[in-house]
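User:
Can I borrow your eye for a moment on a structure tokenisation matter? Would you put together a sequence-and-structure record for a protein of your own picking? Please set it down just below, with no commentary around it:
AI:
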Amino acid sequence: MADPILWIGSPEWANIVSIVFDMIIEELLKAVEETKCEIEKVKQELETCTDLRQEGMLERRLKELQYLQLWHLDLMERMDTIII
């Protein structure tokens, strides 16, 4: 017997899509938390940094992490607006 076909819009399909979205949201939440920890670590390093060159590198890294954080949050917001 052939496998049943999952039609887009069927309850089974909606269930699978919902599970995938939940997994993606969980991964994004984890990424947000990890990025937040990295941001705090870089901020602490900046407070104790005395080398101007190192300070510039840390400031660039901080900006990169902040943009990454915004990107993760934007993705999560967009995921919330998708109707399953």
